[in-house]
Amino acid sequence: MTLNKKMVCILFLILMVFVTTVTYVCSRNIVSKNLIEDGNIYMNKSQYKEAIAIYREALKYNKNNNTENMLKLAETMERSKTAYNRGIINYKKKNYLEAINCFQMVFNKDTIRYENSQNKLNECVNKYVEENMEQAQKYINDLNFKEAEKYLNNILKIDSDNEKAIRLKKKIIS
Questions:
Q1: Per-residue pLDDT for 27 more than 90?
Q2: Domain ranges across the chain
Q3: For residue range 134-166, what is the model confidence (pLDDT) as tens digits?
Q4: Residues 6+ apart with CB under 8 A from 152
């Protein structure tokens, strides 16, 4: 084989490797971009589990901060949605203390659920305080101050500034 033919073969091989590499990189970027767009669609539909799976898949093709941030946001929003839904379930079951804990975990950037969760949180606090105040009052009327104090302490754990609970507790302790 002549020198020219060898040079042409070598150049052809180099060109093929270059074209293959560029095609591979571009196709990975296109796949990643399409996956990210799909993930964004799921985010807009509040389908966070699906978005999480897609963003994770996109990171396999192209790791970048934007995709990692979108994955973290989707995970946070999923936790927020789950906390809100658990809060609603506990609220309906009148498990107000558990509902309070759930509503407190709703992400403040969760524009869909945050405001509602804060309203429900306030309702739960009021109902929890009301229930415990009724029980405390019942035990005070029965002169069972030790039990009454437990219910007043429950109130003060949730609402440390509750004047009525503070006043009643001082009254039964003295």
A1: no
A2: 30-173
A3: 999 999 999 999 999 999 999 999 999 999 999
A4: 132, 136, 165, 168, 169, 172
Give pTM, 2 decimals. 0.77
Residue 3 to residues 16, 125, 165, Cα–Cα distance (Å): 20, 88, 99
| Mean pLDDT (the chain, rounded) | 87
Token pair, residue 121, equals 């949180």
How distant is the alpha carbon of residue 64 from its chain centre? 22
Q: What amino acid is encoded at 164 in this protein?
A: K
